[in-house]
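> call design_seq(struct)
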C-alpha cells in the first residue's frame, strides 16, 4: 500500500505551533501544548488499559518543540522542551488530528 502512505511535504516549527504541509491545498497547524497532550507513547498512555497518564493538565503552558526527526517515511519523533522524546507521531495520526476547517467539517 505504498501509494496510500501519508507524507508531509514540509514540516516547520513555528513560535507556538507545528506546521505540516501535506500538499499545495492543505496545511495543518498544531498548537504545541495540544500536540504534546496527544502523545501516545507508553509513558503517556498505559499500554494495557489505554488510560491517559499525561494529559493537557500535566503539560506546561510554555511547552515547545526543541527538535524532531523523521521516523522512516511515515512518522516524526518530537523532542519536547520538558525532556520528553518518546513520542512518535505518525502522519496518519497527525492528519486525523488536523484542526483546519476542511478536516473538521469532514469529521476526520
Ligand atoms: Zn509520551
Ligand atoms: Zn486539515
Amino acid at each position: 500500500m505504498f501509494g496510500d502512505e501519508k507524507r508531509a511535504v514540509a514540516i516547520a516549527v513555528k513560535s507556538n505551533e507545528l506546521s505540516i504541509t501535506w500538499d499545495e491545498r492543505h496545511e495543518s497547524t498544531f498548537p504545541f501544548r495540544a500536540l504534546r497532550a496527544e502523545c501516545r507513547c507508553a509513558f503517556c498512555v498505559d499500554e494495557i488499559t489505554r488510560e491517559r497518564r499525561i494529559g493537557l493538565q500535566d503539560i506546561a503552558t510554555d511547552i515547545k518543540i526543541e527538535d524532531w526527526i523523521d521516523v522512516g517515511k511515515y512518522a516524526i519523533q518530537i523532542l519536547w522542551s520538558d525532556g520528553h522524546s518518546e513520542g512518535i507521531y505518525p502522519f496518519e495520526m497527525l492528519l486525523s488530528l488536523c484542526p483546519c476547517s476542511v478536516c473538521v467539517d469532514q469529521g476526520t
